[in-house]
Design a protein that fits this description.
Aminopeptidase, acyltransferase activity, transferring groups other than amino-acyl groups, single chain, N-acetyltransferase domain-containing protein, three-stranded antiparallel β-sheet, five-stranded antiparallel β-sheet
């Protein structure tokens, strides 16, 4: 039996956000080899990175949303993941992002996260969303704040320990 999922495709001026494909595992595993993956629970061994990759596909099957593979449309290269994440133990759904090292500093996370938030608000009908950021991840905090998110509270994330919850502007505020 084959599980068939219809991943929505989101586009921006430079990016295509599409569902995960088998070939996306190699850059995903490489990301998890590095300490920079700490905000996503890494570093992880290759076998644990595979489990994380497969968990995302299961998340899509269970929730109807998950992490898209962010692709540079011009080159076709996967440059990270960004999407909506709400596994067991999370206080509520969040916008999450991780950009691979070669693509950092180009505004890709910002562009992808804005498009994901728009999808959550317009297509899924959500009225609010958060981003959960581990303490000390200054780059993710800066991105969340650039998107208008503000620190709401610390909480104990079952997978990550102490986490900081940043609240994004509501759907109504974004449309205003």
């Amino acid at each position: 039996m084959t599980l068939s999922l219809n991943f929505p495709v989101l586009e921006t001026e430079r990016l295509t956000l599409r569902g995960p494909e088998a070939a996306d595992f190699e850059p995903f595993a490489s990301f998890y080899e590095d300490a920079r993956s700490g905000g996503f629970g890494g570093p992880l061994s290759r076998d644990k990175a595979w489990r994380s990759f497969a968990t995302n596909i299961g998340h899509w099957a269970l929730h109807g949303y998950g992490l898209w593979t962010v692709v540079d449309t011009a080159s076709g290269q996967p440059c990270g993941v960004c999407g909506l994440w709400n596994p067991e133990g999370w206080p509520e759904p969040e916008i999450a992002w991780a950009i691979y090292e070669a693509f950092e500093g180009k505004g890709i996370a910002y562009e992808a996260a804005l498009r994901v938030r728009e999808h959550a608000y317009t297509t899924l009908g959500w009225t609010t969303v958060t981003s959960n950021i581990i303490p000390g991840n200054a780059r993710s905090v800066a991105l969340a704040e650039r998107m208008g998110a503000t620190f709401e509270r610390a909480y104990e994330n079952p997978a990550m320990g102490t986490d900081h919850l940043y609240r994004h502007p509501s759907a109504k505020e974004v449309r205003a």
